[in-house]
Amino acid sequence: MMLSIRAQNPDERLIKQVVTILQQGGVAILPTDTIYALVADIYQRKAIDKITKIKGVKIEKANFSFLCSDLSNIAAFTQHFDRSIYKLLNRALPGPYTFILDANNEVPSIFRSKKKTIGIRVPDHDVITQVIKLIGHPLLATSLHADDAITEYPTDPNEIDDQYGNLVDVIVDSGYGSNIPSTVIDCTSGAPVVIREGAGTLEVLS
């Protein structure tokens, strides 16, 4: 199923429909401020298992992130971090950045790596932000890859539907997406370290 939801002032009725699907263990493809992403409720194990099958990876090797609605949402799932990291997050978010932080015990154990870290994002996109706020906790997300040797990330919702429509429960069309993923910054070892440079300026680090 594909739902067309405007990126600005999204239809609340359609947002509720997406949330209901996720709460029932469904898997969605949603727009973010970077690329389209495979998304599930972090507390729905069957949805998580479905995503790992779609990706063809074991859960312990999957690159999952938590999509949060704001900084307070982040603090609920991470260990205390110092003021300099807080200032960095405050400068960068919402925006096209993924921050690797130390996870606390509120993170479901299935997501905790041996290092007990978690990737955290606060995307700057009204559709997915409204979904997160309505569901009341972060969403699990992982990159959506194109079935194409040239284009790594699909940008056209119709092409996404052709490739993934039979594998997921709902695809949200908010127009063409980006093909540049988020910048990944590791904040678990003192000074922040850029793991992957993507969308967003590195000036947030200074």
Protein model, in words:
- This protein has 206 residues and is α/β, with parallel strands linked by helices.
- It has one domain: DHBP synthase, CATH 3.90.870.10.
- Helices cover 27% and strands 20% of the residues.
- The chain is built from 6 helices and 10 strands.
- The chain has a 10-stranded mixed β-sheet, with helices on both faces.
- Helix 1 crosses helix 5 (126-135).
- The longest helix is centred in the first third of the chain and has 12 residues, at 12-23.
Main beta sheet strand tally, sense and closure: 10 strands, mixed
The CATH class turns out to be Alpha Beta
Number of domains: 1
Order of helices and strands: EHEEHEHHEEHEHEEE
Give me the CATH fold name: DHBP synthase
Rg on CA atoms, Å: 16 Å
The helix content, as a percent range, equals 25-40%
Looking at this structure, what is the CATH superfamily? DHBP synthase
**Could you list the spans in which at least 5 consecutive residues all have pLDDT below 50?**
none
DSSP helix count? 6
Strand order of the largest sheet: 1-8-2-3-7-4-6-5-9-10
The CATH architecture classification is Alpha-Beta Complex
- Looking at the structure, what is the overall shape? globular
Class derived from helix and strand content: alpha/beta
- The CA-CA distance between the termini, in Å, is 44 Å
Q: What share of residues are in beta strands?
A: 15-25%
For the residues shown, what is the average pLDDT? 91
Q: How many beta-strand runs? A: 10
